[in-house]
Amino acid sequence: MAGEREEQAALSVSAAMGLAKGALEGVVVRIVGEVSEVSANARYKAVYFTVKDAKASLPCMMWNNRYAAAGVELAVGALVELSGRFTLYAAKGRMNFDVFSIALAGEGMLRMQVANLAAKLKAEGLFDAARKKRVPAIPERIGLVTSPRGAAVHDVLRTLRRRLPLSEVLFAGVTVEGQAAPAEMMGALRMVQDAGADVILLVRGGGSFEDLMPFNDEALARTIASMEVPVVTGIGHEPDTSIADMAADLRASTPTAAADAVSASAESLAAGLDGLRRRMAHAMEARMRRARGALDVLRARPGLSEPLRIVEPYARALDDVSRDLAGALPGALAESRSALERLRTALSGSLRRAAVAPRHELAAARSAFGRVGMHLLDPQKEGMALCAARLHDLSPLGVVARGYAIARGADGSVVASVDRVAIGDAMQVVLADGVVGCTVVSKDEIEMSLEEWEA
Asked: What is the band of 393 on the pLDDT scale with cuts at 50, 70, 90?
């Protein structure tokens, strides 16, 4: 024993660590574990993290170039599958697992696949809000696609029976789990659409992420997006959002919420109708106020409140012109008589001279006198014609000849308002062909425009 101790020399710490390091680095294994810690600093050359299971934990490190090539984003709680070897960091006496490759395992792999598909379909514009269809407020036919054996179908039917009892439900029972589920749901969607559904509910109750994978099918998402009627999903798995939810026109959190989204309650309908009634009443009141205001403006105009005031200035002007004309005619006639007398005197003198003038001078004088005589009265004729035309235009007889009448009181003054006469007063109505004597038996005020009165 003493000889064996002498042959086996003691190792230094660094030598022992080197021996252990060489032994460990020869062991390459695959490990599955849950990420419990992550330290990814851009200044570091490697990503440091820890994986664990129920009984142990293992510190790991992965060089940045390997981590970037793996395409996996580490997060606490993710289930990962690693390949690598054990190694020792001699300076600190610390063991690490040097990771060669990393991939998500189990649900983590499924989530990565779903995320990649969602990014692909989003880039194609399949989830754009512009292509989503509006859900009708009160659909007459509601398509329902779900499992006939789950609680979701009963929740939806109970909700629709309570909120929208007059709507018809077109039910298509399908499998909502397993590999055959996407194809069955696509066929059912088309079937209820062809049957005349106004909106389609695609629902199921809760379940694990793996159970809901049929709703992350690419073909199902494209079918939902291509439907001619809106599709509402109600897949009870919060907080996850499936591909089907993203492609649907409206997403609800549960089957019951989906049924609520396509059915208006009696209370909400009554409230909406009451709101419309109030808006209509307010609009009618505002319109009536505007109409009354416009009517008040018209009523305040003098032409409508006192229509005879419209013709009063013209009647006064006519009277003035009549007086001027009556005064001007005698003077014009006297001037014409004087001119005629001068012409007669001149003519008599010309005749006397013609009697003693030679015959040829007489002929020339006769010709000149004829020419002068033909145009001598032209200015007077034109003046008389102008005065006659003006007198005719302004004459009250011309107005009367067009169908109007002039009302005069017992004293001969023009009656321009009903306020100027009383019941029993005698009046004279001047017409185109005579005068009518009248007695006032009634009087009424007229509120209309002159144009309406003439019409």
From this structure: low
Helix (H, G, I), strand (E, B) or coil at 335: helix
Most confident option among 247-251, 294-298, 330-334, 351-355? 247-251
Q: Nearest 5 degrees, angle CA 115-CA 119-CA 122?
A: 135
Q: What does the alpha-carbon distance between residue 85 and residue 21 come to, in Å, rounded to a whole number?
A: 11
Question: In whole angstroms, what is the distance from residue 118 CA to residue 215 CA?
Answer: 12
Strand partners, 39: 48
What span, in angstroms and rounded, lies between the C-alpha atoms of 242 and 255?
14
Instruction: Pick the more confident residue, 269 or 417.
Output: 417
Contact 104, 72 (CB under 8 A): yes
Confidence (pLDDT) at 355: 63
Gap between the Cα atoms of 443 and 429, Å rounded:
15
pLDDT at 358 over 70: no
136-158: b or e for each residue (b if 16 or more CB lie within 10 Å)?
Answer: eeebebbbbbbbeebebbebbee
Cα(259)–Cα(265) distance, integer angstroms: 11
Q: What is the DSSP string of 54-97?
A: SS-EEEEEEEHHHHHHHT----TT-EEEEEEEEEEETTTTEEEE
Please state the length of the chain: 455
